[in-house]
Design a protein that fits this description.
Blueprint (H helix, E strand, L loop, with lengths): L1 H9 L6 H19 L5 E5 L5 E10 L8 E3 H7 L8 E5 L6 H27 L6 E10 L2 E6 L2 E6 L14 E9 L9 E4 L3 H11 L1 H4 L3 E9 L3 E8 L6 H6 L6 H7 L4 E6 L4 H8 L5 E7 L2 E6 L4 H5 L4 H10 L2 E6 L2 E6 L11
Parallel strand pairs: 2-3, 11-12, 14-15
Antiparallel strand pairs: 1-2, 2-4, 5-6, 5-8, 6-7, 8-9, 10-11, 13-14, 15-16
Helix pairs in contact: 1-4, 2-4, 9-11
């Protein structure tokens, strides 16, 4: 029965024979120790591959504990010349039952899972932080399971683009966010599509100048499903960073926008003037004047431009504040200053 359990667990696992033998021995030893916890046992295989169980006993004149001791008469029958108080290994004839076999199965299954987990870790750890291509396997309320070749990965709902729907069997790109060395209920491989890092890697895939570092992404702020703002700078005077990222007729940016569902991207050219950066980051609003002291930016604009600067649910100004690491104060002739700290949302003036 034990052999059948082992065969069932290791079938088609693709483990090394040496690793498999150690796992089997560990499981069988655990089974015997469950029934004989005081015994000193060891497990091995004979030349024919059969399991051999041995027990260590102390040689004494008159054994008081048959499990731990052996008489010198019996000992010398097994091994000539053995002396009193020596220890020796002899075949163990104790039996185990269904409960102990279940214990062996649990240990073997756990160890096989550990080995498989380490194999997955070693395969994917070098890919952490990069874009991976997979196929949607299953969609659940907690997230989406993705098949990466023959390994399952998990895209949590919190790391998904809001409003995006996945269909089983469809291809999917994602950032490999985390790779764990141990098996976890939430998955060893965690994916991400909602972060700024995912967008950066998409840009590197589609725009060779960014991958080759001819164009540098100086800053990025993203509200997944709504809009991203990116500041780019060129290290080559002959390269227009914004035009290069957009491409002829939008040919470079369109595949990225398609990948991001309904999300929009504002690409801003780097300038040394922080005031100009603030103006550009608040587009489509037209800004009259910007004054910056430390991390406080005061912005003057016409009243009819306020809604454009703030954006739907305050997300345009919030992204601008996050992008430039500033607190932004809007001032117009018809109202008191509107203050937006980095990352803050304003739920009025939806436009």
């Amino acid at each position: 029965m034990l052999h059948n359990v082992i065969s069932e667990l290791v079938d088609e696992k693709g483990l090394k024979k040496s690793d498999l033998n150690e796992i089997i021995k560990e499981g069988i030893l655990a089974a015997y120790l469950k029934k004989y916890p005081e015994a000193v046992l060891r497990i091995d295989f004979d030349k024919d591959g059969a399991i051999v169980v041995e027990i260590e006993k102390k040689v004494v004149t008159d054994p008081e504990d048959e499990l731990l001791e052996i008489s010198i008469r019996k000992a010398r029958f097994i091994k000539k010349g053995v002396q009193l108080d020596e220890t020796m290994w002899i075949p163990f004839n104790g039996t185990i039952g269904r409960v102990e076999i279940l214990k062996a199965k649990q240990v073997i299954a756990s160890r096989i899972r550990d080995v498989e987990a380490m194999t997955v870790y070693e395969e994917f750890i070098d890919k952490k932080g990069s874009i991976v291509h997979g196929t949607v396997h299953k969609c659940e309320s907690s997230g989406t399971t993705v098949m990466l070749r023959d390994t399952l990965a998990f895209l949590p709902r919190s790391c998904s683009i809001p409003g995006e729907r996945h269909v089983a069997g469809r291809p999917i790109k994602a950032l490999l966010k985390d790779v764990y060395s141990d098996f976890r209920s939430g998955g060893q491989l965690i994916l991400d599509r909602a972060s700024g890092d995912f967008l950066v890697k998409l840009l590197e895939l589609e725009i060779p100048e960014i991958y080759d570092k001819l164009i540098e992404i100086k800053a990025i702020a993203r509200k997944a499903g709504y809009k991203s703002k990116i500041v780019v700078a060129s290290h080559d005077l002959n390269i227009d960073p914004v035009g290069t990222c957009v491409g002829v007729g939008g040919g470079r940016i369109k595949p990225i926008l398609k990948e991001l569902f309904t999300e929009k991207i504002d690409i801003i050219s780097w300038v040394n003037s922080k005031e100009e950066l603030v103006k550009n980051a608040l587009r489509p609003a037209e800004i009259n004047k910007v004054e910056i002291i430390d991390k406080e930016a005061t912005v003057w604009l016409s009243e009819d431009q306020r809604a454009f600067a703030i954006g739907k649910m305050g997300q345009n100004i919030s992204l601008a504040a996050e992008l430039l690491d500033l607190n932004i104060h809007l001032i117009s002739s018809a109202s008191s200053p509107t203050i937006v700290d980095e990352g803050q949302d304003i739920e009025n003036n939806e436009k």
